[in-house]
Amino acid sequence: MPGGHLVTAVALGGTAYLVTGSTELSVGCFVGGFLIDVDHYLDYLVFEKQWRRPGPASFLRYYFKNELQRVVLPLHSLELMTLLTVIAAVWHIPWLIGYLTGAAMHLAFDIAINGDYTLRNRFLFYVFGFRATKGFRAAELLERVPVAPGTGSHPYREFFAWRPPVDEPQRTDAVSDFCDGTRT
Predict the structure, then answer these.
(1) Which CA distances in Å does 180 have to 148, 172, 177?
(2) How far apart are CA 109 and CA 131, in angstroms?
(3) Residue ranges of the alpha helices (H) in the chain?
(4) pLDDT tens per residue across span 93-131
(5) What is the dihedral sign for C-alpha 67, 138, 167, 108?
(6) pLDDT at 173 over 50
(7) Most CB contacts within 10 A, which of 20, 75, 116, 142?
(8) Distance between start and end Cα atoms, the chain
(9) Using CA atoms, how far apart are residues 17 and 154, in angstroms rounded to an integer?
(10) Tell me: the pLDDT tens digits for 131-171?
(11) pLDDT: which is higher, 1 or 73
(12) Cα–Cα dist 10/13, whole Å
């Protein structure tokens, strides 16, 4: 739901500005709520070795087609969030407080949505050390979700979809017949 992150980050940043008048806090909310996902793109380029196809459409196709092999995601890390929280608490940096607020919203949505959908362990996935113990291998961290035919053919439209289209599991003939009303 990357488009959902964009919309919620804009809403959070706008609300932060309206309530506080702080541009720094507002920008931090947006960066933490949406631009935190830049680590997905870094994974794509560095760990997936997709340097030959660096464009956003190629990245989105790869991501939506569930072709991930490694999931490093250093910014999606509770360890990093803890360190940044300590820094923000000591020095009271407005943009960092905004970043942490946006990132907390982002990770909460990730846990709620991806936890039901694709993560093998909805909470431990966001612990960098846990991902490291699995060698950052997507096969050990993510459920293999089948994608519908044509997924990735409209990456910008899919960017704003709630979830990528998923293939329905095939049912046995008896179950299909029962559901269709031809068998009782």
Answers:
(1) 22, 12, 5
(2) 19
(3) 2-20, 23-33, 38-42, 56-64, 78-91, 94-117, 128-133, 138-141, 155-159, 173-180
(4) 999 999 999 999 999 999 998 887 789 999 999 999 999
(5) negative
(6) no
(7) 75
(8) 40
(9) 34
(10) 999 999 999 999 988 888 888 889 998 888 765 555 555 44
(11) 73
(12) 5
Residues 111, 122: contact at Cβ < 8 Å? Answer: yes
What are the structure tokens assigned to 118, written together? 């694709």
Please give the model's pTM, rounded to 2 decimal places: 0.85
Q: How far apart are CA 100 and CA 88, in angstroms?
A: 9
- Which tokens hold the place of 91? 């020095």
φ/ψ (deg, to 5) at 145: -90, 120
**How many CB atoms lie under 10 A from the CB of residue 31?**
19
Structure tokens at 96: 């960092």
Which residue has 């998923």 as its token pair?
Answer: 166
Give the tokens for residue 52. 């030959």
Residue 147: beta bridge partners? 166
Domain that holds residue 124: 2-180
Number of domains the chain contains: 1
Q: Tally the C-alpha atoms within 13 A of residue 166's C-alpha that lie toward its C-beta.
A: 11
Q: What is the pLDDT of residue 183?
A: 45
Token pair in block for residue 167: 């293939």
108: Cα within 13 Å, side-chain hemisphere: 10
